[in-house]
Each structure stands twice: as structure tokens, then as C-alpha cells.
Amino acid sequence: MSAVILDGKALAAKMKETVAKESAALPRKPGLAVILVGDDPASAVYVRNKEKDCADCGFLCLDYHLSADTTETELLELIAQMNDAPEVDGILVQLPLPKHLSEESAIRAIAPEKDVDCFTSENVGAMVQGKARFLPCTPGGVMALLDEYGIDPAGKHCVVLGRSNIVGKPMAQLLLQRDATVTICHSKTPNLAEECRRADILVSAVGRVGLVSADMVKEGAVVVDVAMNRGADGKLCGDVLYGEVAEKASYITPVPGGVGPLTRAQLMCNTLAASKNRQ
């Protein structure tokens, strides 16, 4: 068999089109403040992409690029200003920050109603309770992709590889809320291949090239590759050995063009929701 490709790029375009229509109907444009500290090349690319998404959706985008030697006090003061700015509905602090800055302090400083990444403790807690103000961007994008292709997690055994606060943990929670039985695997999990072979839906978010091979995937499983790595040839790739796993899975995400665009589209959905709440 050859897996159906889960086209995240096409769904992201559809989501942004809907957001743009709803945005145009509001009394004022939704506003997103994007704060980048330092000169990390990957972060700069992510920020440019988010600026483009804002333009596509008719949002106001306020871009703050701070020098790498910015102090924590200066960063927190800027976040406080954005919390009070009436034209700003969402605040995004691009991670990672330079090592001398505390990511925890920066996240904690963002007003929960403007935390469109869903990183603050208040928003994470609400999400765990099934009362989410916003969905975490990458897991929310994955759920939208499953829904788009009619893949219902209810009653399925889902295995999530990775336990990060950004993807692994919230991904497991969202699947659990949709009546899946969820196993979280990580670096200390024994018999990883055996655990993966039990999965009806396998989500990999580790960041290790070639981690998931065909012998770790059950025949007909749905495979979602969240990771974004660089292979030995310099090309973008995920955790999954795509060519061999695609011959065994029923559905699979490509890298690039799978989950990545949906992470950004979910951010636009969250910013729209924040704007609606505030307007």
C-alpha cells in the first residue's frame, strides 16, 4: 500500500482564507506583536513567515527585533507595553531566547488573554481541563489535519514520541480529550519500537533524523511527523524515514509541507480568537 499524503500546506491555506474573511468583518484589524531577540537564522525565517501570514490574513503585525545583548528588564518592559497596547491582541516571543534571558520569565510576563502561543500556565491549565482559550499551535494544527481527513482518534491507540511542553505533552492532552488511549514515549522509554508498533496514530516530535523506520510502524497506521530537521544532505526532513514508512502507513505527513504550515495557521486562528474576545 502507499499512504495518502496529509497535505498540511493546502489545509493551512484554507484556514488562513477563513481567518482573513472573519478578520475583514471586525471593527479593527487583529494585531500581533512579534518579539525576536538576537540573530538566530532559523528564528529570523520563522518570524518572516509569520509576518507573511499576518499580511495574508489582514492582520496588523508589529515586529520588534531586539539586539542579542538585550537585558531581561528591557525584554519584560517591552512585553508589559504590548500587554497594555490596545491595538495588540496577541504577543509572540520567538524562542529560543539568548542564554542570558529566561524563557520562563518572558512567557510568564505575557497576559494570558494575549498568549496566542498557549504557553502561559493559565492557558495550559485551561487546555488540560478542556476549557482552552487557545489551542497550542502545533498540536492544534495536527488535530485540524486529522479532522480534515476524517481521522477520528476516538477509540484509537495513539503514541506520541516526545514530551516537550510545546508539542508532546499538549498533543497527548488533545488526543485524550478526543477519546483516544494515549501513550507518551521519550528517551527513557524501553522497547520504543514495540510501543510504536501498537499505535493506530503515531505522532513523532523528537527532532532526530531517521528515528522512525518502517519496522516501527503498524500496517495501516496514521503517521504524523512534527519534527523539522536537516539531513546529512542539508535538506529538510522529519523524524520519519518517509519513503519506507509511506509504503506501510495509511496516511502520512510530508516534511516539509505537513505540520509546519499548520502551526502558523493555528497561530493566526488564535490571534483572531484573541481579537474577537477583546473587541
Describe the protein's topology.
Elements: E1 4-5, H1 8-24, E2 31-37, H2 41-57, E3 60-66, H3 72-84, E4 90-93, H4 103-109, H5 121-128, H6 137-148, E5 157-161, H7 168-177, E6 181-185, H8 192-197, E7 201-204, E8 222-225, E9 229-230, E10 236-237, H9 242-245, E11 251-252, H10 260-278
Parallel strand pairs: 1-11, 2-3, 2-4, 5-6, 5-7, 7-8, 8-11
Antiparallel strand pairs: 9-10
Helix pairs in contact: 1-10, 6-7, 6-10
Question: What would you say this structure looks like, in words?
Answer:
With 279 residues, the protein is an alpha/beta fold. The N and C termini lie far apart (50 Å). The protein folds into 2 domains: 85 residues, Leucine Dehydrogenase, chain A, domain 1 (Rossmann fold), CATH 3.40.50.10860; 125 residues, NAD(P)-binding Rossmann-like Domain (Rossmann fold, 3-Layer(aba) Sandwich). Helix 1 packs parallel to helix 10 and helix 6 packs across helix 7. The protein is built from 10 helices and 11 strands. Strand 5, helix 7 and strand 6 form a beta-alpha-beta unit. The protein has a 6-stranded parallel β-sheet. Strands 3-2-4 form a 3-stranded parallel β-sheet, sandwiched between helices. The mean pLDDT is 96. It is globular and about 50 Å long. The chain is 41% helix and 16% strand.
